[in-house]
What we know:
Elements: H1 3-9, H2 15-23, E1 27-29, E2 33-34, E3 48-51, E4 54-57, E5 63-68, H3 90-94, E6 98-99, E7 107-114, H4 117-124, E8 132-138, H5 144-152, E9 154-156, E10 159-163, E11 167-172, E12 175-180, H6 187-194, E13 199-207, E14 210-211, E15 221-223, H7 226-231
Parallel strand pairs: 7-13
Antiparallel strand pairs: 1-2, 1-3, 3-4, 5-7, 5-15, 6-7, 8-12, 8-13, 9-10, 11-12, 13-14
Helix pairs in contact: 1-2
Amino acid sequence: MRFDQLLQSQGLGSRSECRRMIEYGRVTVGDMGFVRDPRSEFHVDGFRFSIDGCEHEFRRQVYIVMNKPAAYECSHRPDRYPSIFALLPPELIRRGVQAVGRLDSDTTGLLLLSDDGQFIHSLTSPNRTVTKCYEVLARHPVDDVQLGKLEAGVVLRDDPEPVRATQCERVSENVVRMSVTEGRYHLVKRMVAASGNRVEHLRRLAIGGFELPSSLAPGAWRWLETAELKLLGWNAAVED
């Protein structure tokens, strides 16, 4: 791939901006040092380069995990709070990265983002059964009757068919770990309300077999590894 086209594909600027970046001697490639010819050709697999001393790795697609903090919206056009996209570097925004399903502004925890439409569809399509696990802090103590209702199924106002939690475990008096497979609007909050309680705080812990990394601080993000993508049911290899 041509060097200027390669940089552009990574969201680092328009073709002309990337060409100037190269010609002005801002880009180095391994032992080659500065590469000033935008027409230089490189194999992209495993390709690494640096711009102004900052190292980059070529990636065909973006797959990242974020620990979403409270008071952030999963929208490019936020209404009340800042956008979670403000927590990402500009090059990822230019690549068209999207949230894989949304979390409410007051909901925290595991959030996936990608520019791969097929990956996003595989996790958000209503025809797919993807388990999502949440930690629920309830306003009132959660008793066995409420747990039973959530496991057996509760009826929501917009659907006469009961919706059930695939798993519901009491962690402490007011905290429940709850898993669902549907992705409806405010689903967990509405289910808890239908059981006779109220959600004070909601945190997503896992999607499929992938759990929120304990080392990831609120507001931080990192790349997903190939093994982690497989835990999400996505077997496409991460391109280096």
